[in-house]
Amino acid sequence: MSEKKGSPAHLSDLFLEEAAELLGISNKPEAVDKLPVEPPPTPAPKVLTMPLKEEAAPEEAFKAYWRMLRAFFRSGKNIQDPEWAAFPALLTPYRNRQYLNQQFPAWMADADTFEKEKVNRAFIPLHELLAQAVEAFAPNEGEARILKDNLLRLQLIIIGKLHLVDDTFKAYPVLEESLKDLVAKLAIGGGEGEAFEQDIAQLKKQLPKTGVLIPFSTHAPLHLLACYLNSHLSRERSSLRAEIHSLLIRLKDLLTVEQEKRPGAQSAEHLQSGLGFASEFLNFDELSAVLPAGGAEVMPEERLQRIEQIVATLEQADPILFNTDAILLLGHRLGSQLSLNWQKAFPHSVIEMAAEGQSCTTAMAVFDQRMEAAARLFGAFRMGKLEADNHYLPEAHSEFFAHFDWRQFTNEEMAACPPVLLLADARILMKAELDDYSRMLSSGRPIKALLLQEEEAGTATPDDTSALAFRPEPGALSIAHRNVYFFQGSAIHLDYFFHGVREAFSSFSPAILHLLVADVEKSGFLWMSAAVEGREFPGFTYDSRLGPRWGSRFDIQNNPQPDQDWPEHDLPILDEAGKEASLRLSFTYADFAAQHPGFAGQFHLVPPQFWSEDLAPLADFLTFPPEESYAKVPYIWVADSQSILQKAAVAWPVVLTCRERLDFWHYLQENAGIHSFHADIATEKARQEAEARAEAQIATLNAAHQQEVERVKEEAARQAMEQLADVLLGLEPLAGLDAIASPPAPARPAAKSPEVVVDKPAPAAEAETPSPEPQEAEEESLPLGEAWIETPLCTSCNECTETNNRIFKYNAEKQAYVADPKGGPFADIVRAAENCPARIIHPGAPADPKEPGLEELIKRAAPFN
After folding, report:
1. Pairing between strand 212-214 and 169-170?
2. Residues 664 and 473 sit within 8 Å (Cβ to Cβ)
3. What is the DSSP string of 277-317?
4. In this structure, how many other beta carbons lie within 10 angstroms of the beta carbon of residue 728?
5. Is the peptide bond preceding residue 58 cis, with omega within 30 degrees of 0?
6. Cβ-count burial 79-90 (b if 16+ within 10 Å, e if not)
7. Is the distance from CB of 218 to CB of 524 less than 8 angstroms?
8. Of 590, 583, 581, 586, which Cα lies nearest the Cα of 568?
9. Which residues contact residue 490 at a Cβ distance below 8 angstroms, ignoring those fewer than 6 apart?
């Protein structure tokens, strides 16, 4: 999702509740004059309603209809009137409505900005520019209240002046005039009026005096590109131009000094040419006669000629570099498709037209020609610096400069060169010049290309069966060459496009800008938003400079819900009873296609009396395994002309395209590290290994516990037998048995002396040989005591401490023990014993005999005591 107050560049932004204030505001010029003092509340779009419930059709009619529906689904041959009046449900609330697009107008720096204002920002939407300017002098909430309350009105006034004008404008005059209009329209008098005018004056001081405004138009991206080329190259070239100028002065001074050493330098004619201003005071013939003959060492002729050649080359810097912003090469038919005055839009660029099928080869030829001239210039520049410092060594440097070309350019030198920019129709290029396109990228030439994807070009229609196959994606093909920069986005997200332009022209490698454009007079904004939302044209960047790790080069975050297959949204509706409700809907490629008239025959409205469980939401249908989808028919929600929701069955050709688009989206997701197959495999493997280690640890602990229990049992039995033997042999009394059983069983004659056993064997035998029942009774009568834990066997699972952290605590080794057996109810102790995976908690006896449900708790505790 985009920021709350950002541009609704995706449909996700339109669905935000906060975006409602941006909708329904007319941005036509005539509407500006009719604005009331307070902007009226935006009328809410009509809420969609569910159709009334109808009884199911008779069985025979139902079966017959479904036979036709399944035939439509598989064949794509509609069984209805081909007139398609429905519209995708998620788009319907925004159909035929005006929007205040927060991306436009946009302020952009021009060549004067960096020279006169020394600012670092190069691009910012107008609403942000105004807000930041006001914030600079009125940061507190109560300051400049009237101005802050009317920033939206000011923005509308500016939009009204620029509405659908396909050009750029000097920013400050438009802003200044709009501020005057705002003051006149509000006509605030008294003290508030004076304060308001003072705030307007402060705002003028904060606004940039340079830069241009780019309104929302069909060619807005091209205007942005032209402004960037001019301002970017002006900044990049300023220091280089100064260096070349300074070097020329040094080299010319060097040549002048050398000329003074040559024969004839003392002649009257030569002296007069240099000192002609003093001809009234000097006799040049006499001066020449008294000057001594030259004796200084002269420069070798070879070096002199080399410096003269360097100077001659550097003097051509302006026509080679500085007088040209770019070389624009227009692909076949593009110049006629776009109604743009190219020379006016790019006044400082060279415009050339490429022949049909020759766009890429022509671009490479033009690049080689231009770079050859630039290599001569930069070679002369480097040689000149060596000569000026007398560091040029012919035997070391001559061979290098003889083979010097653009591949040896520094980033600064390449940035100063007029870029070769190919503008082409993406569809035509992929069909007619695929081999040449690949050759251009693999050559490594840093040619820049702007590939325009027009409104109809990327849309698969039933009549074009090739479009239903897997498309040749410019992005995938470009990325396959690895050493490229690739950007894909839509024209409505202008700040994202600016970022792509900036990165493309700073890259010392081939750079491709793949841009979705549309006619703004034909709901281009909504159409382009739906294209991005429905994964028809996902935005992403690939930058080979970001590092050697493949995944680090990708970014797909400029998409709605990039971690999902399809974006999901809650659509407010009214149910059959007229009550407010909502539908959770996925926006798929089919939703995007349903707004296009060419797809009318690929959708069929299913009457409610024929709805059944075999109608499956398209997003779910795409996830079904084959055996589950045989009898299913996918559908999407649409709204008819009465704003009634309907289920529209989707034909098989559109389903295939959905799968193809989803496949490409998964390709981008995996490259960007989202739902990566290898990462998922590694995660599952790590989980299984962790579970295996935990199970092995538990098994080891259980075995150790069992061994300890057996050892304790054996030790107790041994001690008991030893003590019993001692008693029987008269060695010592049976005192030790008190530790084993307390109190002693009344049937056991422990107090009798050995003599009684000897003198009266029969009674003694009866007394000393109790029946098994009394022994069992003795064992059952053993007291349970307080709760306890076999602490060494604790696995630190947190079950007991989370149940009651007053009764159970961890020791220093993070193993549980009973800290306070009376710290809570006996029920908590029993529950902890039941939840303990190691089964090492022994509840003992309840501390409170009055605790409710004690009888049941004692039964539950018995297995653990």
Report:
1. antiparallel
2. yes
3. GGTTT--HHHHHHHSPPP-SPPPPHHHHHHHHHHHHHHTTH
4. 12
5. no
6. eeeeebebbbbb
7. yes
8. 586
9. 9, 515, 516, 517, 528, 529, 531, 532, 537, 539
Q: Given 3-state DSSP classes, what are the helix, strand and coil percentages for the chain, each rounded to the nearest 5? A: 50, 10, 35
Beta bridge partners of 605: 648
- Residue 38's contacts (CB-CB under 8 Å, 6 or more residues apart) are none
| Residues paired with 425 in a beta bridge | 452
Q: Which of 188-202, 225-239, 325-339, 569-583 shows the lowest mean pLDDT across its residues? A: 325-339
Residue closest to 563 by CA, chosen among 710, 664, 673, 657: 673
Question: Is the Cβ–Cβ distance between 383 and 392 less than 8 Å?
Answer: yes
Measured distance CA(164)–CA(104) in Å, rounded: 11
Q: Express each pLDDT in 271-328 by its tens digit.
A: 556 555 555 555 656 555 555 555 567 788 899 999 999 999 999 999 999 999 999 9
Paired residues of 809 in beta bridges: 817
Cis ω before 105 (30° cut-off from 0): yes
Q: What is the DSSP string of 672-717?
A: TTSS-HHHHHHHHHHHHHHHHHHHHHHHHHHHHHHHHHHHHHHHHH
Strand, coil or helix: 562: coil
Compute the distance between CA of residue 340 and CA of residue 346 in angstroms, rounded to an integer. 10
**Is residue 796 within 8 Å of 849, Cβ to Cβ?**
no
Dihedral sign from CA coordinates of 199, 201, 202, 208: positive
User: What is the distance between the alpha carbons of residues 198 and 647, in angstroms, rounded to a whole number?
Assistant: 58
pLDDT digits (tens, 9 = 90+) for 552-563: 999 999 999 999
Task: Note the pLDDT tens digit of each residue in 565-619.
Answer: 999 999 999 998 889 999 999 999 999 999 888 888 899 999 999 999 999 999 9
The number of C-alpha atoms within 13 Å of 156 and in the hemisphere containing its C-beta is: 26
- Contact between 178 and 134 under an 8 Å Cβ cutoff? The reply is no
**What domains can you pick out in the chain, each with its CATH number?**
223-264+302-522 (no CATH), 568-674 (no CATH), 785-865 (3.30.70.20)
Q: What is the pLDDT of residue 333?
A: 76
Sign of CA dihedral 219, 224, 230, 233: negative
Total residue count of the chain as it appears in this document: 865
Alpha helix (H) residue ranges in 638-676: 652-671
Note whether 383 and 306 are within 8 A (CB).
yes
**What's the CA gap between 443 and 441, in Å, rounded?**
5
**512, 485 Cβ separation under 8 angstroms:** yes
Q: Quick one: DSSP state of residue 21?
A: G
